[in-house]
Amino acid sequence: MNGEMETPVKEPELWAKEDLLRLLDGMKVNLPQNDLSKFKTAESHLDWEKVAFNHYSGEMCKLKWLEISHAVRKFRTLSELIIDAQDYVKNPYKGKKLKKHPDFPKKPLTPYFRFFME
Prior knowledge:
- The chain is 47% helix and 0% strand.
- The chain is mainly α.
């Protein structure tokens, strides 16, 4: 309205856990045996059309990998990064601090603080 065109917002497609693991396995298979280069270099040389499977195109696989790779540290080779990404996909809460329940009891005061409260 108001003379502005509304563009349809494309919401991200949800991938099943099995599909994510299959994506990572496909990437691992298409890596060279002696992967010693930086992960960005190996990522740029990866043939994404060979990684593509089912109804997911190579471009969709690449975008999903970029989304997954933000959650893992990157100072390694791509083959090591894929192993970490597989662990992340299997257990996405690892390393994240979960919120405490509001009724969760607080820790008791130490003797030092009890002494100074008097």
